[in-house]
DNA sequence: CTGTTAGCGCTTTCAT
DNA sequence: ATGAAAGCGCTAACAG
């Protein structure tokens, strides 16, 4: 309110709200601006008496440091950009939570961008976001346009690709192999005795890669007639339910392998409404996180991925890069966080 | 790899990666820096020949405008801060998606902060984030610390509180009344003939307010012995399942009213595993979005909230504020987006 | 430990 | 339609 009065006086004509600056604080504290800056960011470099004067002045003036100016002057934005396909697909929720927890604790802030599974859109977002001079970038997946890769590389900041693995990462890559997952799952289920498979997947690139390598592995074991139903992302219960209908049209397979737990839940619902017992009449396999579904639906099998671990490792990798005096050197990281097949018959 | 070579050449001694600036572009294009700036941001002010020279120079140099500098000079950051309790609770997913769609289209970027339902944490985040000089702030809910409100007010930027309603908004408020929702729901269910109620809620403040006004309204209708089970947020299927167990201990009520669809799904699962038919043996009421659950579980009733509408309205309100020559004036907005009771018996 | 001097890269505000 | 000068608010680098 004191502030508002000031405004009414000050801005006789104009629009600009003139905010309190470092210089104002310095004047009130009776020290040099630089001393205020130090008192705020490196308190160990100033006498505690000075420190107190400054903090008092900060409080008195209601000073809020302008990080735009700080970042410009220091070439350090304390900003990390995170680009995800969507926020609706909750597979990333744990990852983002863990990532942001780690970053926030280290006083980094998060710039979020949603790509909608479109590499083109990702490219535009990268370009726009790089203008903010983030200290690091996190991307979902390893499939990017050439321009995206080039821009990211030119930016010379840590880049983490997550939720996938590749032999040619831009910089750091933390995740697991969707191909390997598909193959292992196929072998696992064959070993369990299943022979009649259906696959229900949304058209998100990683889901499709899992599905394809799953089906290929089945073929290598002479299992060919796999019903493969693809629906548009995002994966919802409704999509799962409709997909199940489509699959069940041609008679029930032994098992339906879904690209996500959400889909799998939709399938469960559809199975229930048709009076099919799971897993006796119809086994259902999901993908995602245990906490979401597997504990709750005793009949549901799933492939568990530790999203929180991916986020935590990403935060740690970034912070390490930020802190280390990485003078020109690169410390590539390739972390396979793995996955676990949670199986109702064996568990 | 090209990247690394370049590094080794260029930075003979130092650490700083010197990037291409407006001045470099101007030199290459043979014009003044200011002309480059205009060509990029207000093309209508430069001759198309000049325009072309500049764009060529931009491409040739790989120039990426430094928005930190731009924002500092122009006092316009093109940044909107969004503070949410969590990203795990998917009730906000649609809202965030719609909000960001709107903002991104207008070339605004989003700074995300997670408060974990803690007003204290929100306060810290607000302080930190205000340092970025965002052009607007979006907050979930209307329950903030005094310091939060004061800082936000002092910032003199549009502030939107969403997913709730209040008579004393900071600035703009877009959502619905959780009290009214609880009351209407109570009256609705009483009218349908229900008498034995249980409530299962997580301890998120808005969920509790819905639950409390629901129960109070029941009491006003002389229904008193309501079982009220509260669990820690976030709401997961597992929490729903456990909560259902706790409730069913004391014999099944006619209906369980849950603070979210996710919880409700957990209750459905538990009911199924006990052989209870829904809604005949046990009716289940959720809360959230239709697409999540109600279309899929024919037995599930729910209160539908249009999260996407909240996000879209928020984006629109912000953009309007940004564009209008809001010279000192305020255009308060109070938008009740309402809710709809989706009922299995009536629908 | 504190102060001074120079910018960071851009845009505003005049001139031309 | 284009240019020149003067900052935006802060911090690096050095001097004391």
UniProtKB/TrEMBL annotation, chains A, B:
Record-annotated HTH lacI-type domain positions: 20-74
Pfam families the UniProt entry points to: LacI, Peripla_BP_3
Any GO molecular function: transcription cis-regulatory region binding
Coiled coil regions in record: none
Keywords: DNA-binding, Transcription, Transcription regulation
Cited Gene3D superfamilies: 3.40.50.2300, lambda repressor-like DNA-binding domains
Top-level taxon: Bacteria
Name of the protein in its database record: Putative L-talarate utilization transcriptional regulator, LacI family
The organism of origin for this protein: Caballeronia sordidicola
């Amino acid at each position: 309110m004191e502030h508002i009065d000031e405004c009414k006086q000050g801005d006789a004509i104009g629009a600009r709200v003139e905010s309190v600056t470092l210089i104002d604080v310095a004047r009130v504290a009776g020290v040099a601006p630089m001393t205020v800056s130090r008192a705020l960011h490196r308190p160990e470099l100033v006498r505690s008496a000075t420190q107190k004067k400054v903090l008092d002045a900060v409080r008195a003036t209601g000073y809020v440091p302008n990080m735009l100016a700080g970042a410009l002057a220091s070439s350090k934005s304390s900003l990390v950009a995170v680009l995800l396909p969507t926020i609706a697909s909750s597979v990333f929720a744990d990852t983002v939570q863990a990532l942001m927890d780690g970053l926030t604790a280290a006083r980094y802030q998060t710039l979020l961008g949603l790509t909608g599974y479109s590499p083109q859109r990702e490219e535009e977002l990268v370009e726009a976001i790089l203008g903010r001079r983030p200290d690091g970038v996190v991307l979902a997946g390893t499939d990017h346009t050439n321009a995206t890769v080039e821009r990211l590389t030119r930016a010379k900041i840590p880049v983490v690709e997550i939720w996938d693995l590749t032999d040619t990462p831009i910089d750091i890559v933390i995740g697991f192999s969707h191909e390997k997952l598909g193959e292992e799952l196929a072998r696992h289920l064959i070993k369990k005795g299943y022979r009649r498979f259906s696959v229900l997947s949304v058209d998100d690139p990683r889901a499709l890669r899992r599905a394809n390598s799953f089906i290929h592995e089945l073929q290598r074991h002479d299992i060919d007639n796999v019903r493969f139903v693809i629906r548009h992302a995002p994966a919802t219960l409704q999509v799962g339910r409709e997909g199940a209908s489509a699959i069940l049209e041609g008679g029930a397979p032994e098992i339906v392998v879904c690209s996500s737990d959400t889909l799998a839940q939709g399938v469960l619902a559809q199975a229930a409404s048709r009076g099919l017992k799971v897993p006796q009449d119809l086994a259902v396999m999901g993908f995602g996180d245990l906490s979401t579904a597997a504990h709750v639906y005793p009949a549901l099998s799933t492939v568990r991925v530790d999203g929180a671990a991916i986020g935590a490792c990403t935060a740690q990798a970034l912070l390490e890069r930020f802190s280390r005096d990485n003078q020109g050197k690169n410390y590539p990281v390739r972390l396979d966080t793995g996955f676990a097949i949670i199986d109702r018959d064996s568990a």
